[in-house]
Specification:
It is built from 16 helices and 14 strands. The strands form three sheets. A six-stranded parallel beta sheet has the order 3-2-1-4-5-6, sandwiched between helices. Strands 11-10-9-12-13-14 form a six-stranded parallel beta sheet. Helix 9 packs across helix 10. The longest helix is centred in the middle third of the chain and has 32 residues. The structure holds uridine-5'-diphosphate-xylopyranose (UDX).
């Protein structure tokens, strides 16, 4: 049985550890942060991921998963799952990775294979192998394509496995990796380091680009009285386009996609290449979010509203992660414009004051919405559909609902008295003082 050590118990490392244990391997997951280590020693998974707590408990109980502060002396495979955060210039901070590799020098010197799962921007792996003196024949990369909220499922059923190798990989170790990945019944692409980096970066950048395009078409639909879902579902019916990632919103977030656009753009610019499409997709995403905030401000101003409630703070449903969340960007814009802002999110119970000074995070949708002049849907939590909207609307000063995620049913909302509109469809003709002409969102 292969001795597998996973370095880093973040969302990639913990999912990888539990996934490999569920595939019958014996795994030690190593974490240096007491904040993460302590709950795990008590059997509690410190991140919000579907199925992860159950998988962790079962693997620990079966003796297939151990949690440690230091790596075991003997390890055949070392999976590096530490963060490689991208700074604002699109460069990866590799300090955690090189620090972990330094601590693993004894294991590396006794023949362990190094498998880097951390996201490596283009040109990074070669540099790390060279600068950290890693044995190229035993150093592999294995980029992950996990979505938060469905990460364990994505790990256990990947659409493809990518293994990046140096110029002459150790064939025995490569075979060992194949034995791990073959049961996943997905095509295994054994490629060079740069290919693996480009596959990961291009995959994420394309997903982001597709989202920006969907959101732009949704805005165009608003201007011409078309319906975004009607249009994009028919567009996605073309197998060359595909239906996924065409669900329009007022913008996308997360720790990966927005940053990946910056990383890919920077990778090109550093080699003198204009990255027209990638840069445009990043700029468009921010513009869509600002356009949504302007739309809310226009509705509030036209109704002399001062209080706005947001339902949703996480960057997407199914997670408590607010990193580059479009909802928070809109919150900051509304606070800066002087509005009172309250918010409720089923998974996000608090937001650092530095993130949104003045935001009131409520314990319930009812508490967030009571007395508001407008409520915006900003994260696609399915439970927002089941709220008692008749009661919520009665508790508001104005029953205005602006759906930034096209989550709610327009007819059902209007039937309970909502003055409802949503991105991607032309707003209803505005009665009264709001009927002033002019395009939405200027
Ligand atoms: C993404 C990639 O999907 C994954 O392959 C990569 O490994 C990490 O980055 P993640 O950021 O966790 O995963 O979530 P994802 O499901 O991709 O959603 C990203 C953003 O796009 C969210 O804000 C989500 O709400 C939004 N989104 C997604 C849409 O607005 N419409 C869609 O159709 C899909």
């Amino acid at each position: 049985m292969l001795g597998i050590t996973v370095i880093g118990a973040g969302y990639v490392g913990l999912v990888t550890s539990v996934g490999l244990a569920q595939r019958g391997h014996t795994v030690t997951v190593v974490e240096v942060s007491e904040r993460r280590l302590e709950p795990m020693r008590q059997g509690v998974v410190p991140i919000h991921e579907a199925g992860l707590q159950e998988g962790f408990t079962a693997a620990v109980d079966a003796g297939r998963l151990m949690v440690a502060r230091e790596a075991p002396a003997s390890a055949d495979l070392l999976f590096l799952c530490v963060g490689t955060p991208i700074n604002d210039r699109g460069h990866a901070d590799l300090a955690a990775l090189t620090g972990a590799l330094r601590d693993l020098r004894p294991q590396i010197d006794t023949g362990a294979a190094i498998i880097i799962r951390s996201t490596m921007p283009l040109g990074t792996t070669d540099r790390v192998v060279r600068e950290d003196g890693l044995p190229e024949s035993r150093t592999f990369t294995n980029p992950e394509f996990l979505r938060q909220g469905s990460a364990l499922g994505d790990f256990l059923a990947p659409s493809r496995v990518v293994v990046g190798t140096g110029r002459s990989p150790d064939s025995e170790l490569l075979e060992r990796l194949r034995t791990i990945f073959e049961p996943f019944a997905a095509p295994i692409h054994v490629v060079g380091y740069a290919d693996a980096e480009a596959i990961k970066n291009a995959s994420n950048a394309f997903l982001a680009l597709k989202l920006s395009f969907a959101n732009e078409i949704a805005a165009l639909c608003e201007c011409y009285g078309a319906d975004a879902d009607t249009v994009l579902q028919a567009v996605g019916a073309d197998p060359r386009i595909g239906p996924l990632f065409l669900r329009p919103s007022f913008g996308f977030g997360g720790s990966c996609l927005p940053k990946e656009l910056q990383t890919v753009a920077m990778a090109g610019l550093e080699r003198g290449l204009e990255m027209h499409v990638t840069v445009a997709a990043a700029e468009a995403n921010l513009a869509h979010q600002d356009r949504f905030a302007a739309r809310l401000e226009r509705r509030l101003a036209a109704n002399t509203g001062t209080r706005v409630a947001l339902l949703g703070l996480a960057f997407k449903a199914g997670t408590d992660d607010t990193r580059t969340s479009p909802a928070l960007r809109v919150v900051r814009r509304l606070l800066a414009a002087g509005y009172e802002v309250s918010a409720f999110d089923p998974a996000v119970r608090q937001v650092a004051v530095s993130e949104a000074p003045g935001l009131r995070v409520s314990e319930s949708a009812a508490a967030a919405v009571a007395g508001a002049d407008l409520v915006a849907i900003t994260t696609e939590w399915p439970e927002f559909r089941d709220l008692d909207w008749a009661a919520l609307l009665r508790s508001m000063r104005k029953p205005i609902v602006v759906d930034g995620r096209r989550l709610l049913d327009p007819a059902a909302m209007r039937a309970v008295g909502a003055d409802y509109e949503r991105i991607g469809s032309a707003p209803p003709p505005l009665a009264g003082p709001e009927s002033a002409p002019g395009p939405i969102g200027r």
